[in-house]
Amino acid sequence: MKRRILPHHISKHLVSSQFAMAKNFLKETRDRYDVIVIGSGLAGMTSANVLAKAGYSVLLLEHHYQLGGMATWFKRKGGHIFDISLHGFPHGMVKSCRKYWTPEIAESIVQLKGIRFENPQFSLQTTFDRKDFTRIITEQFKVPYETVDDFFATARKMNFFDDQETTTRELFEKFFPGRSDVVRLLMEPITYANGSTLEDPAITYGIVFSNFMSKGVFTFQGGTDALVNKMKAELIKNGVDLRIRALVEQIEVGPDRSVKAVHVNGKRIECGAILSNANIKSTIQKLVGPDHFDKEFMEEANAVRLNNSSCQVYIGLKPGEGFDNCGDLLFHSEHDGFDIEAMLSKEISSRTFSFYYPETRPGSDRWLVVSSTNARFEDWVNLSDEQYAKDKEDLCQSTLDCLEKYVPDIRQKLDWIEASTPKTFKHYTRHVEGASFGTKFEGLKVSQSLPEQIGGLFHAGSVGIIMSGWLGAVNYGVIVSNELDKYLTPSEATI
Ligand SMILES: Cc1cc2nc3c(=O)[nH]c(=O)nc-3n(C[C@H](O)[C@H](O)[C@H](O)COP(=O)(O)OP(=O)(O)OC[C@H]3O[C@@H](n4cnc5c(N)ncnc54)[C@H](O)[C@@H]3O)c2cc1C
């Protein structure tokens, strides 16, 4: 078994930054583009694609050597390919990919039917849709059908313009008072999916939960590498000028408070508009800088709370070694009830396992497991190098101990194991505190009102809970591109 416990990204980064210095990644860029997109997350790539198709000249700048942002993958010795955030998204991705990407991409989206829960309160498997959840909550949890039906209808009707005061806790209290088992079933997967808690506005829960419940949980067959490479081909076909290893240092704002240019790898490139896919807080606080905003707006932006970060453990089995069907997504917990503090704690009692079978990448002979836990940046950032390495090793070992319950001989079959932490996510995506799912709800208003502060400056990317996740990011990219289109050509906006 090969094991990586030292921060691989640091040594790799040293080599890659020397390489970056040697090569000019901005060779032959134009002096000016209609639009510059900062960041190639799903929102950034989707925006670049629709804006290029609408006829704009688009430059897409990504600091990492790979496109995708959180929607990414990495390869390890022995032929392992690990996906970071390909665990499941709602069916709405099919329509969004067909409309804003290609039919071919949409056609590779397939359902994951084995969603499992194993915890002290219940053990069950579901297809994670309204019909099956209704069956479970009525038959297994003995809640009257009318209550369950009313709950689903209420959640389905929720939208952005509704009351934002009611919390998710109050929503559950109304429908399922005293039923911590039902709350756990309804909430735990959503907390894993976007970091939301019982104190967040109920509309954020209702919108995201209903998106999943419409048809279940879906994945991209072929893996994130296949998806992002197809997206890259499409971007190039549509004329987007794509540059990796291109770190935007500054967004230049003119005296008239509109965007003029970006400064990237020490070079100034002019533009008519900018769409930042970087973290909303760093876009405002660092790339533009506080001096360019109204005082009240700056206070509002500073007050935006980040969502939590994550830890993951990537486990590769020896070629050809597998396991009995464990389901696709397994929400494992040893904790008594749904408890957000316990889910964020470094003393891990809850994990989500994603089981990847060879069909994930047809033709492959690999079984892989990725374990994800919600995590706090502050628990990982101030450790000495030795302690950090030790804590990662402990995380790997405790994850294997837990996994042994489902794959009894995992240690014999193991070929590769390594862990990532909030520091890893920060390093690769530059999200403040390694936030996995952007910001809490209030971040959405700040993101949306950015162009009112600075002409031609737009933001699209994980924000406000409802605009995060694969589907949220893609759709928000389109919504914001539409606004950007209206800004550049008010009379003939087309998107
Ligand atoms: C562990 C984990 C598991 C997840 N699981 C799921 C899941 O199962 N289903 C789901 O739907 N979602 C999941 N998500 C969330 C989902 O991956 C994200 O919400 C989504 O991919 C974010 O897309 P985005 O457009 O906001 O951009 P991001 O992915 O945040 O990308 C932003 C990009 O901007 C680049 N950038 C930042 N600053 C600069 C700069 N100054 N110059 C140049 N480039 C810059 C970054 O390098 C990055 O590529 C998961 C996330 C994590 C971390």
Automatic annotation (TrEMBL):
Per the UniProt entry, the signal peptide is none
- Gene3D superfamilies xrefs: FAD/NAD(P)-binding domain
Under Pfam families, the record lists: Amino_oxidase
Record-linked InterPro entries:
Amino_oxidase, FAD/NAD-bd_sf
What are the residue boundaries of the Amine oxidase domain, all occurrences included? Answer: 42-432
Query: Which GO-annotated molecular functions does the record name?
Result: oxidoreductase activity
What family is it from?
Belongs to the carotenoid/retinoid oxidoreductase family.
The cross-references to PANTHER family, in alphabetical order and at most eight, read: B-CAROTENE KETOLASE, PHYTOENE DESATURASE
Mind telling me what this protein is named?
Answer: Amine oxidase domain-containing protein
- Organism name: Thalassoglobus neptunius
